[in-house]
Amino acid sequence: PRRRRDGSPSQAPGTPPSNLSEYFKQFLFPQNECELHNFRLSFSQLKWDKWIIAPHRYSPQYCKGDCPRAAGHRYGSPVHTMVQNIIYEKLDPSVPRPACVPAEYSPLSVLTVEPDGSIAYKEYEDMIATKCTCR
Amino acid sequence: ARAHAASGKTSALWAAPGDAAGELNVPLRLPRGARRRYALLPPLLKVLSDRGAQGWESQGPGLQPDSRALRYMKRLYKMYATKEGIPKATKSHLYNTVRLFTPCSECKHRHRDLVRGDVHSVDLLFNLDRVTALEHLLKSVLLYSFDASLPPSSSVTCMCHLSAKEHDPAGQVCPSASHSVAFSLHAEVGKGRWVEMDVTSFLQPLIAAHRRNIRVAGNVTCLVGDPRESTHLENPLRVALVPPSLLLYLNDTSEQAYHRWNSLRHRRKALQRSGPLADPLGARGSSQGQRA
Lengths: 135, 292
Fold this sequence. Notes:
The complex is a heterodimer of chains A (135) and B (292).
Chain A: H1 20-25, E1 35-37, E2 41-42, E3 52-54, E4 57-58, E5 62-64, H2 71-75, H3 79-91, E6 100-113, E7 119-134
Chain B: H1 2-6, H2 17-22, H3 32-39, H4 43-54, H5 56-59, H6 67-80, E1 97-101, E2 115-116, E3 119-127, E4 135-145, E5 155-166, E6 179-188, E7 194-198, H7 200-208, E8 213-224, E9 236-237, E10 245-252, H8 260-273, H9 280-285, H10 287-291
Antiparallel strand pairs in B: 1-10, 2-3, 3-8, 4-7, 4-10, 5-6, 5-8, 8-9
């Protein structure tokens, strides 16, 4: 249909959209949209504290939630994400919807006792999720 | 596994590394292909799933670390990382790995603790099997700890004459030449009563050649006082009876290790991506920036 300057679908002049809330629902973000969730663990819970001396607590975090249709705008997702969503919605529901996954990480410093009794301080990349995206 | 059992074959109980991490008490036996993949796991996860899978108890604890060494490394950890384990940005050097080795126990008796007067002779064997091929040496230090009798923040002057060579467990004469060095060192003994003797250039040839067993022998004389201030040094200091540890500062070049320069580059790219406002210097600072 022809579009008005502000991009909304043009209607016959003077007739309000039948149901405004329905109309705007398509732009709402899902209630449980994709976002970063807290998760803290201590290595003593895993009984690994005998050889992982530090840190005592470790918060790897995780991503969870539904991906909105306008993922590009919100999460900087590539166009492919929208394409995959359209495939899921209109062509083949067996194709999975875009998933909520980590987009950025931060490192972690670990102090461990090695099997030979030596002690190692090491810094590992990508051990804590800091940002989520839809892919 | 059930199918294997049904067909009468020995059911090779295997799990992808990820599952193994989930079922921590399942002994981890992987078919060949998966074993290769397993070998690609980041060292920390490999150790996690190894240790976790066999369970600490069943594997029996490894050798216990030396308590003084443990205290030193905990102090080092607090200097380099926050309580949550985030590396502190203040760290300027490029090493992302620090390994502390105490002389191997079976040869401690060989640590001739002869103190003739104020000369202290050492004969130590360090096993460096834990250093990986991707860990490049940046600095190595002999770490002496002084017993409590030494008042904190004393100044100590040590004269050392050391030699190092590769030690072949089979007792063969090792082809690698021995390296010897004589140096004097003046240090302020901090409240942890530690003195670091930099032996980087001295050990570099052996460690760069990935020698696994390094023997360090020689004489160390430490006196309390600072030769720059008083002509005669006070009474000779009996260096701690504890054999020194070997501290290696390494740059782990593997993908899983954290590379500061890399993260700085990531950050700069992210700034540039989010547009000129976020990176004023980039936009205004260079002509091509303005063109862009």
